[in-house]
Amino acid sequence: MMTYEAAKQLFDGAGLPLTESHFAQFQCYLAELTETNRHMNLTAITEPAEAWEKHFLDCAILLQKVQLPLGATCIDVGTGAGFPGMVLALLRPDLQVTLLDSLQKRIGFLEQTAAKLGLANVRCIHARAEDGAKLPELREQFDMATARAVAAMPVLTEYCLPFVKQGGVFAAMKGPSETAEQAETAAKLLGGEIVGEESYTLPTAGERKLIRIRKTAPTPQKYPRRSDKIKKQPLG
Ligand SMILES: C[S@@+](CC[C@H](N)C(=O)[O-])C[C@H]1O[C@@H](n2cnc3c(N)ncnc32)[C@H](O)[C@@H]1O
């Protein structure tokens, strides 16, 4: 059981505000996640204190690190149970958030959950990243693409950077061992430039890292390549 006071303290510790209405929405999200997780593999983390830290706080920190203008468009590639995208949409109703995943049943869960939470700023798309990024309505349309726990940097950059418009950013949520340098070749080939990496620490889960790549030129049409090619010959 998580109380509002405990959740607020957790967010305060990272310098993030948490209103009672956000708390109620997060609790509703967690209840949906826990219930659905009984019959669908969504996440290994449903214990309340752990979910609050490793899912909600971790994803909320992204908003603190990347300053998104009012009304910005974001895509979360390989969103799974909605991390980080659903958290962004919940905390920033002005953002237009697209949640993309290759598993239809997860997309069904996300559509139902966004409706339950009253989030009108969420769109859910069932597609592989490398197919979605070929669609004119998605290619180079986003101020920010993000992803957490989907693939290693060279592969992930090929999945994500094609979605970003020029001047926008790809922000990868990573563990401590991956580095921005690992994406340098991929970034160059895909029209990006490494901005840098920034570490932060979760209270009990330890170090996490945010790697940022800015989109400086259009992605050549031949990217992203076919799924098997991306995995067999990562750009690196
Ligand atoms: C380990 S889960 C991580 C989910 C979530 N981002 C998180 O941090 O909890 C990876 C997710 O990425 C999705 N995924 C993997 N490869 C993908 C691809 N090429 N295109 C779209 N989704 C993909 C999987 O279906 C899965 O839901």
Question: Can you describe this structure?
Answer:
- This protein has a domain at 68-232: Rossmann fold (3-Layer(aba) Sandwich).
- Helix content is 39%, strand content 23%.
- It has nine helices and seven strands.
- It has helices at 4-13, 20-37, 48-65, 85-91, 104-116, 129-132, 153-160, 184-190, 227-232, and strands spanning 73-77, 96-101, 122-126, 142-148, 164-174, 192-202, 206-215.
- A seven-stranded mixed β-sheet has the order 3-2-1-4-5-7-6, with helices on both faces.
- Helix 3 (48-65) packs across helix 4 (85-91) and helix 7 packs parallel to helix 8 (184-190).
- The mean pLDDT is 97.
Write a concise synopsis of the structure shown.
The protein is globular and about 50 Å long. 39% of the residues lie in helices and 23% in strands.
Kindly list the characteristics that best describe this protein.
236 residues; alpha/beta; Rossmann fold; seven-stranded mixed beta sheet; 7 strands; 23% strand; globular; binds S-adenosylmethionine
Q: Topology, pairings included?
A:
Layout: H1 4-13, H2 20-37, H3 48-65, E1 73-77, H4 85-91, E2 96-101, H5 104-116, E3 122-126, H6 129-132, E4 142-148, H7 153-160, E5 164-174, H8 184-190, E6 192-202, E7 206-215, H9 227-232
Parallel strand pairs: 1-2, 1-4, 2-3, 4-5
Antiparallel strand pairs: 5-7, 6-7
Helix pairs in contact: 3-4, 7-8
The structure holds S-adenosylmethionine (SAM).
Largest sheet: 7 strands, mixed
- What is the level-2 CATH architecture name of the domain at 68-232? 3-Layer(aba) Sandwich
If strands are numbered along the chain, what order do they take across the biggest sheet? 3-2-1-4-5-7-6
Helicity range: 25-40%
Please give the CATH class of the domain at 68-232.
Alpha Beta
- Would you tell me the structural class of the helices and strands? alpha/beta
**What percentage of amino acids are in beta strands?**
15-25%
CATH fold field value of the domain at 68-232: Rossmann fold
Shape: globular
Per DSSP E runs of 2 or more residues, the count of β-strands stands at 7
Family: Belongs to the methyltransferase superfamily. RNA methyltransferase RsmG family.
Protein name: Ribosomal RNA small subunit methyltransferase G
Organism: Ruminococcus callidus ATCC 27760
Biased composition (Basic and acidic residues): 225-236
